[in-house]
């Protein structure tokens, strides 16, 4: 690599959660939603794309804005936010962007001739009669779409959102009892068949093997060898879990947790080694090595999330041991114990009161160290950092993993600012 890679792997001022990674050609592309620093809600920005050579995961390039919220005919005045997207390469060689607006119960589709766009609006996932899915009966919840184009050209589409409190959905008649999976026609838009639950919610999981890690959101479909993986965010929210099947559209069995942005339970049952919050992501193979992409929380709430990644191992039996969160991430090995490093690459934050789960609204800083940045927005020059750790006190700590002390290194110094 040109330089070392860190977590978060994008610049300190960039907030791209919900990352779906794909290798197209000789580059890896990450598609996600777009938060703002100290935003007041999720996904306030337009879709942008970042990519890197598969041979150098330190060299991320900004591909620009690939789709704007106002391009959707149902959103001309930007009332709806662009929630987590997914991208699939069709058998026609074109690239299809799938997403759901925050104020609509439909899944929209845009298309481009190239992975990095720009994408143009194409239409809505629809039934055979042309009625958009989510508006036609039965009304499946359209949220966090996941799409897989199988080796035989068949197209599979998953959607769903299953919170603990489903009273709103009961009143509206929208189905929210798990992740629902469909097969699409080759046009990438029309539902051919489906509607079965591939991962149950907390309301219907008894006896399924998903108990304690039921489906919440963030559907993602991947194929590894001859096995199919359904990656999702569980009802615990801080963890990405997976289920495995021999078939793309049925028979998924719970596998385990791939990564938790609070590192639960690697340090003990329900012990937070980091301030947690929701997560979303998936797995990808790059140059023979598998990775999981996910996001972390900053600024004392869940509205300013940043992209991270870790190495994972897929065992011969198909299982994936949980990966701990680290500072080195895509680097593939410990960082060199020499030179200067930004505090923002800490992978653990906690205090004498322990860490906890960030709420949606901004929490008080009392008892909590946290990541923040110097200005709300700004164009920072290469080598500069917008970000730092605030509110450090006695018995608060930040953890960095890992560094390789393989020479004559013998000293660590830290720079700080403040009063007291």
Structure description:
- The strands form nine sheets. Strands 1-2-3-4 form a four-stranded antiparallel sheet, with no helix packed on it. A four-stranded antiparallel sheet has the order 5-6-7-8, with no helix packed on it.
- It has one helix at residues 167-172, and strands at residues 20-24, 27-31, 47-53, 61-67, 86-89, 95-99, 108-112, 120-124, 139-140, 146-149, 155-159, 174-175, 178-184, 191-200, 215-224, 227-234, 239-245, 253-260, 282-286, 289-298, 301-312, 335-336, 348-350, 370-373, 387-390, 397-399, 403-404.
- The mean pLDDT is 95.
- Helices cover 1% and strands 36% of the residues.
- The chain is mainly beta and 420 residues long.
- The two termini are 41 Å apart.
| Number of DSSP E strands | 27
Mean pLDDT: 95
C-alpha-based Rg, rounded: 21 Å
Tally of helical segments: 1
Poorly predicted segments = none
Q: What is the terminal-to-terminal distance?
A: 41 Å
Secondary-structure blueprint of this entry?
Layout: E1 20-24, E2 27-31, E3 47-53, E4 61-67, E5 86-89, E6 95-99, E7 108-112, E8 120-124, E9 139-140, E10 146-149, E11 155-159, H1 167-172, E12 174-175, E13 178-184, E14 191-200, E15 215-224, E16 227-234, E17 239-245, E18 253-260, E19 282-286, E20 289-298, E21 301-312, E22 335-336, E23 348-350, E24 370-373, E25 387-390, E26 397-399, E27 403-404
Name its key features.
420 residues; mainly beta; 4-stranded antiparallel β-sheet
